[in-house]
Every structure is written in structure tokens, then in C-alpha cells.
Amino acid sequence: MKNILIFVFVLVLSMFGLSFAAEKISKPTPACPNFSSFYCNSLHFTGDGMRYWYEKEDGFMKFTSIPYNQLSCKKCHVTSCDKCHAVERDGKKYFSVERARNTKTCLRCHGREKLTFAFDKKRASEDIHLSAGMGCMDCHSATDVMGDGTFYESMRQKGAVSADCMNCHREGDEAPVFNKKLRPHKVHHGKLDCSACHVSSSISCYNCHLGEVIKTKKKKGNFIPMKSWVLLINYEGKVCSGTVMSLVYNGKKFIAYAPFFTHSIMSKGRSCSECHGNSAVKLIKKGKKVPVVRYENGKIISWDGIIPCVPDKLNWAFLDKRQNKWVLMKEGKEAIQFVTYGKPINKKQLKKLMMPFGKKKR
């Protein structure tokens, strides 16, 4: 009788597509739960987006020799449905879709977004969607969170994330319709992403001191959050908003340039002169470097404005940590990596940025 009951139990599980055998995954990921699910291939489960770039030949692991899955970062990734869906009432656990859709649930892990909202609230310049009462799941689909069964190496890989401005800003939707006839929308001939003009400033987790993070097992106090500039960078044939993540470890300097969508959207796009012929571009035209981040009299000072991503024309201060104090690192040049398929601004694009807006070529 006992054997019959066990057989029936397994048969019922099989009918619902469940299996005791974990799905085999071709990449180094956490062990999948004891059921077969397409979620096991999602970036939320695998965390492979960060691992992929960190462990590449030009990635930061060449300095640390520590595999990604041995870093504390790995603990952030979601290996159980409970982390987003579980609620407790009267001492019992329940499955909640409402909790998973709550922005506060997302912000428990997505620290950059949490920092972004804090910066913007302090400056009274909240994201237009946030101030309208929208949350993460108003733009991101369930597929963005749970995956679609495909193994993606990065969230910037085509198909990994479905959120897009044009999903809503089109005919028949509640949002304002994208107007193709507006001059700023026509003049760039489809080569400019919405984020290049509508992201107010990019968030950067700058100068992550990985040695201290490993030693103290804390991120807080071991990096410098900043949000005062936007990096213009190429991605998928368009110029979009970008950011950097810089790291230091055992006296080594490292900086990664990346396309990045900071959730600080302005209703009105920036003016032409904020990019064309601006202060950063003028310095580059004169053969000088843009001091994006500098350290003077014990203070971090960051650039304010739009910066074209031309690495050899940008200057970044790197700081070591001694006796719990930041100290300027004067020696050595930083190693550079372009992540999430980003590419620098090219000579032709830079030349166009150097032209003061409104003047025609002769």
C-alpha cells in the first residue's frame, strides 16, 4: 500500500511537469531546486550577467584570481521563489503575487536603483514615472524577472529584457505618444537612444574597494556613490546613457564602461547645447582631459554634466583605503574594460559633438 501511494504521488507531480531531477545548466550557476523550471536559466537565478564580465579575459578577476561564485556578491541572487513571493500571516507562509510586484521588494536587492531614488528625492528631481505612482513592474514584464527559459549571459543581451520606452509611448496607450516630427527626434536619424536625452544623471558605484569588501564583508562605506553626470556611450548602433564602475584591489586600478539606464527620467529632454560644444567637449577639443572625478583637500569632486565616452580623454581619481580613510592612489594606470556590449564614442561622433549646435558645416 505504501509503495502504491509513493507511485501515485510521483505520477501526480509528473502530470504537472515537475521532476525530482534538477535541470542541467551549462553555465556555473547555483544548484537548481529539486524541480524542473525555466526560472533556473533566468539572470535572477544564475547571476551570470555579473559573472560573465567579471571573469572575461579583460575582467577584474585577472587582478583578484577569485572566481565570481566565491565573492559575497553572489549571495544577492534569487535562488528561491520565496525571496519575492513569500508572505507570512498568523505564523503561516503564503504565496503572494502582490508582494512580488511591490517596488520595495525589488529595492531589497537592486541597490543602485535604491540609491538613485534617494539621490533624486534629496534634489527634488524624482523620475517622472516614479512621481506618477508607477513601480518597477509597470515597465518590466514577468519574463524580465523570471526569464523565458533561454540562458542569457547578460541583461543587455538581445531578448533578455523586454522593458522599452516604445512599449508605452505609442498610439493607443495612455502615455504621451512619441512624436517623430519633433526636431530633436528627427535630427539624429534614429541613432540616439531615448536615455541619452531623458536620463537626468547616471548613478555610479564608484571606487569599490574590493579588498575591504572581502575583509569586512560589507559594501557600505567601501565604495563612493555618485550621481552628477551622464556618460554618452554606443550600444546596439545608438548613443545611449552610460556609467562606470571602478574598482581597486591590492594597489591595482580598474574601470568598466557600460551602457546603463538609470531610473532618473525627465519628461523634457535636455537641450542640444548640453551635449554639443559643452564644457567636457571643449576640453577634449583643446587636447585636455576631462577631470570626471578628482580628489582635493580630502574631498571627492565629480563632474557635473554630459561626458562623451572617450577613455583616453577622461581622468578618474582612484582611492585606496588606509585606517578607514580614503587616500589618493598616484601611481599606475587603470585597466579598462567595456562591458554589456558598450563601445566608445568614435571620432566621427566626437567631431559632431565639437560643432556648436546651429552652425552649419562649410
Compressed to H and E, one letter per element, the order equals HHHHHEEHHHHHHHEEHEEEHEEEEEEEH
Estimate what percentage of residues fall within beta strands: 15-25%
What ranges have pLDDT less than 50 throughout 5 or more consecutive residues? 1-26
Amount of helix: 25-40%
Mean pLDDT: 89
Number of strands: 14
Shape: globular
- The helix-and-strand class reads alpha/beta
Give the number of helices. 15
Q: Report the biggest beta sheet as strand number plus sense, adding barrel if it closes.
A: 7 strands, mixed
Distance from first to last alpha carbon: 93 Å
Radius of gyration: 23 Å
Write the layout of secondary structure elements.
Blueprint: H1 2-15, H2 43-46, H3 48-54, H4 61-64, H5 82-85, E1 86-89, E2 92-95, H6 97-101, H7 103-107, H8 111-122, H9 128-131, H10 142-146, H11 183-187, H12 194-198, E3 202-206, E4 208-209, H13 210-216, E5 224-235, E6 238-249, E7 252-259, H14 279-285, E8 290-296, E9 299-302, E10 305-308, E11 314-316, E12 319-322, E13 325-328, E14 335-338, H15 347-354
Parallel strand pairs: 4-6, 5-10, 7-14, 8-11
Antiparallel strand pairs: 1-2, 3-5, 5-6, 6-7, 8-9, 12-13
List keywords for this structure.
single chain; 362 residues; alpha/beta; 7-stranded mixed sheet; globular
In short:
The protein is of the alpha/beta class. It has helices spanning 2-15, 43-46, 48-54, 61-64, 82-85, 97-101, 103-107, 111-122, 128-131, 142-146, 183-187, 194-198, 210-216, 279-285, 347-354; strands at residues 86-89, 92-95, 202-206, 208-209, 224-235, 238-249, 252-259, 290-296, 299-302, 305-308, 314-316, 319-322, 325-328, 335-338.
